[in-house]
Amino acid sequence: MNTDDTGNDKMVYDKIKNVLSPGQTKEEVKDIYNSWADTYEIDLNPGRYQGPIQAAIECCDVIPEANREVALVLDVAAGTGFLGKELQLKGFRNLHALDPSTKMLEKANTRNIYQKVINDFMSEEPLIQVEADTYDIVASSGGMGQGHIPASALWEMLRITRKGGFIILVMREEYLRHPEYDGILEVLMENMEETGKWKTIKKRIIPKYFEEKEGAVFVFEKA
Ligand SMILES: C[S@@+](CC[C@H](N)C(=O)[O-])C[C@H]1O[C@@H](n2cnc3c(N)ncnc32)[C@H](O)[C@@H]1O
Q1: C or N terminus of the chain, fewer CB within 10 Å?
Q2: How far is the CA of 112 from the centre of ligand 1 (A)?
Q3: CATH number belonging to the domain at 9-222, selected among 3.40.50.300, 3.10.350.10, 3.50.50.60, 3.40.50.150
Q4: Where are the chain's structural domains?
Q5: 175 C-alpha to center of ligand 1: Å?
Q6: What is the pLDDT of residue 8?
Q7: What is the pLDDT at residue 189?
Q8: In the 3-class helix/strand/coil scheme, how is the chain assigned residue by residue?
Q9: 10 φ, ψ to 5°?
């Protein structure tokens, strides 16, 4: 296990366990992130957590460099803006962030990379301020997990993505087997493929996504 600046791995693991513990309401999850915001970036530094870097790689794969300045991207569960920072480094300039935690978003705002910030949950409920077919990419790094983005939110991600646009999800692989997603998330993904809502561009497993844990990467193109 790596040791970070705090030198305290157990504390980080306890925080992750806490935020993912079963039976919490989405408001409770939000409150935990509000109180984690000050140390989140030290705790989940790139030496330990590869989500934002991997999600940015996928965004670059689907949008050629010449189009990155204009491509409109929604960073879902943006947190403190790790993914936005990576995307900006790769030439993306049209970035929006969505996250229910105001404290995480306050940190993200200090980066001056998001043109718009939406303080809300991603769920099956339509986001009133976002019209259908808006985004070239709807991407999430680390937003999927128990008590976090529900599987049913794929419908809303699909709605707000433009036709021919992309939905990119990067998450811890083992979460696919958590009760909230097991037999639900991947089944819905396949159902969307079979019913012509989207085309699966990529599904891959990556090593060392979080410490020694594997990650799962999904890329879909809206039909
Ligand atoms: C592990 S952090 C990931 C943050 C950032 N994307 C990253 O990779 O560093 C998870 C984030 O998901 C947010 N979140 C939790 N439930 C959510 C939901 N239903 N919709 C959108 N974001 C949610 C939390 O507030 C938190 O900022």
Answers
A1: N
A2: 19
A3: 3.40.50.150
A4: 9-222
A5: 14
A6: 66
A7: 98
A8: CCCCCCCCHHHHHHHHHHHCCCCCCHHHHHHHHHHHCCCHHHHCCCCCECHHHHHHHHHHHHCCHHHCCCCEEEEECCCCCHHHHHHHHCCCCEEEEECCCHHHHHHHHCCCCCCEEECCCCCCCCCCCCCCCCEEEEEEECCCCCCCCCHHHHHHHHHHEEEEEEEEEEEEHHHHHCCCCCCCHHHHHHHHHHCCCEEEEEEEEEEEEECCEEEEEEEEEEC
A9: -60, -40
Residue-level pLDDT at 7: 40
List 140's β-bridge partners, or say none: 76, 169
How far is the centre of ligand 1, averaged over its atoms, from the C-alpha of 142 (Å)?
6
Nearest C-alpha to atom 13 of ligand 1 is from which residue? 77
Tokens of 11: 């504390």
Mean pLDDT per segment of 10 residues, for the chain of length 223 residues?
53 82 90 94 90 98 97 98 98 98 97 96 97 98 96 98 98 96 98 98 96 96 98
What's the confidence (pLDDT) of residue 37? 95
Give the closest residue (by CA) to ligand 1 atom 17.
148
- Note the pLDDT of residue 3: 43
